[in-house]
Write a structure and sequence with these properties.
Mean pLDDT: 93
Distance between the termini: 17 Å
Number of helices: 10
Shape: globular
Helix content: over 70%
Number of strands: 0
Strand content: under 5%
Radius of gyration: 18 Å
Largest sheet: none
Low-confidence stretches: none
């Protein structure tokens, strides 16, 4: 598929109110430095229930990309994405809570993210365990949950695709 075909198909999906297409268009705009358009596409996608777009908006508010930095709006969009099952949003919420000194809430978010398969959350949990913020039992349970999530994504097709990718294709 050519770039022109991709763009044409994407715009058809956007016209049909496809939130995933809007998020993709927002990402394309953001990659090109057009933060105002990206914000508009992400916002419309969130109105249609796209959790990935909520995560992208949280990042825009965190970084101040096309909008003023706003921690309240950042956290709002992180919460919406986390409620929708976005592991990195859950991880980031944990980090925000940790930064704000709410260690128990932070650990809960990070454990949930680890159970959803987020690798960065396992690393953060290790630090929390070393600092005495996570019990040995909770840490072990989170590691088991993370492993179960990783195992659930394994399949012969995925392994073949990964091997193919490593060959440079």
């Amino acid at each position: 598929m050519s770039k022109e075909e991709y763009r044409r198909n994407l715009m058809k999906r956007i016209e049909a109110n496809d939130p995933e297409a809007m998020r993709h268009k927002g990402f394309d705009c953001e990659s090109e430095g057009d933060y105002i358009s990206a914000f508009g596409y992400y916002l419309k996608a969130t109105e249609l229930g796209d959790v990935g777009a909520h995560f992208s908006l949280s990042d825009m508010y965190h970084e101040g990309l096309g909008v003023e930095k706003d921690e309240k709006k950042e956290v709002h969009h992180l919460e919406e994405a986390a409620i929708g099952g976005h592991p990195k949003a859950r991880h980031n919420l944990g980090f925000v809570e940790l930064k704000n000194g709410r260690h128990a809430r932070a650990v809960k978010h990070v454990i949930i993210a680890a159970n959803l398969g987020d690798d960065m959350s396992v690393d953060l949990l290790k630090s929390c365990y070393r600092d005495g913020l996570v019990s040995k039992d909770d840490f072990a349970a989170a590691l088991r949950g993370h492993q179960a999530a990783a195992d659930a994504t394994k399949s012969p097709q995925r392994e073949a695709a990964e091997a193919f990718r490593k060959l440079g294709f």
